[in-house]
Specification:
Blueprint (H helix, E strand, L loop, with lengths): L2 H16 L21 H23 L4 H36 L4 H31 L2 H19 L18 H28 L1 H13 L1 H14 L4 H24 L4 H25 L4 H20 L3
Helix pairs in contact: 3-6, 3-7, 3-8, 3-9, 4-5, 4-7, 4-10, 4-11, 5-6, 5-10, 6-7, 6-8, 6-9, 6-10, 8-9
């Protein structure tokens, strides 16, 4: 027994011997306790309350309340990954421009990229992006897919003159500065939506962002090749051709950053990017593939479709 307990017992016995009245213990309302009422249940309840509060404080200090913070860290990781892959995609535009400036451009190599990219992008649009958009915002997503499709169509056919995607443009096809500017503006808007597609995919999941990046990257070389070729054909120097290809890369990164900052607008950005992906594959790339009377080109379109389905099966996504 402690010293304090010993003293209280000693005083109580002394009062009993002296005949003094022992004051009754009172509860928290000031009323006298009834004799024989047990005090232990209340003490247990108080101990349990103190223990629970201590556990909660400990969880806060040790990071027990972390579901929201984990989601925040995951989103920050995916946003950073989207920005990094956006830079890699932008580098693809520069490499495509370099092929033109160098003069020794592998035309067959670019055509194979177009065929593979066409099949892969069609599969991404129909298997991944459009179903995910409908799941995210219902049937209204299909309207935004249509808007995304015709938005690129409008820019390419009103601002830019006719050109073959991924093919060299000659001087007689671009006779004045307005034509060069129109192509550059149209391609810049086109590549901006490439960045939108990458970022929107990563806002949904790492898997969707990765497949969108690969789809975009497959046609980045032909994009840079096309715009650099147009600039050279209009009489500009090699330096301007590389700068034009670099501008497409900047537009891609801008699309990634803008979409990543507008996370709340994902229900619009994702179906719009689905429409853009569908347009690029079906209207820009496939017609160029069909111009080549080569069975290898047709086979590569199917390889592009099969590659996405195989990856989806392997990763069980």
């Amino acid at each position: 027994m402690s010293v304090i307990g010993f003293r209280s017992v000693f005083r109580k016995k002394k009062r009993q011997n002296d005949g003094a009245e022992i004051p009754q213990r009172r509860n928290f309302r000031g009323k006298a306790r009834k004799k024989g009422k047990a005090e232990k249940p209340r003490i247990r309840w108080l101990r349990s309350r103190v223990w629970l509060e201590a556990v909660r404080i400990g969880e806060r200090k040790s990071g027990g309340e972390q579901p929201h913070s984990k989601m925040g860290h995951d989103l920050a990781f995916r946003t950073g990954l989207a920005a990094g892959l956006g830079l890699i995609a932008a580098a693809g535009n520069l490499v495509g421009g370099y092929f033109v400036v160098r003069g020794d451009w592998p035309r067959k190599f670019l055509q194979y990229f177009l065929a593979l990219g066409a099949g892969y992008m069609l599969a991404v649009a129909f298997v991944e992006v459009i179903p995910e958009s409908v799941q995210l915002s219902g049937e209204s997503a299909l309207l935004f897919v249509l808007i995304g499709y015709f938005l690129v169509h409008l820019f390419e056919h009103t601002l830019a003159p006719h050109f073959h995607f991924g093919e060299e443009t000659h001087c007689e096809e671009v006779s004045h500065q307005h034509a060069r500017t129109s192509v550059l503006v149209g391609m810049t808007i086109h590549t901006f939506f490439d960045g939108v597609a990458i970022a929107a995919g990563f806002l949904v999941s790492t898997w969707l962002g990765a497949v969108m990046f690969f789809a975009v990257f497959l046609h980045k070389l032909p994009e840079g090749f096309t715009v650099a070729s147009v600039v050279l054909a209009s009489g500009q120097g090699k330096r301007n051709a590389i700068l034009a290809a670099g501008l497409l890369g900047v537009a891609t990164v801008a699309g990634v950053l803008l979409t990543s900052s507008l996370e709340g607008q994902l229900k619009y950005a994702l179906p719009l990017s689905g429409g853009v992906t569908l347009y690029v594959a079906a209207t820009d790339l496939l017609p160029e593939v069909n111009r080549e009377p080569n069975w290898r080109m047709a086979l590569l379109v199917f390889v592009g479709v099969a590659s996405l389905l195989i990856m989806k099966h392997l990763f069980h996504v």
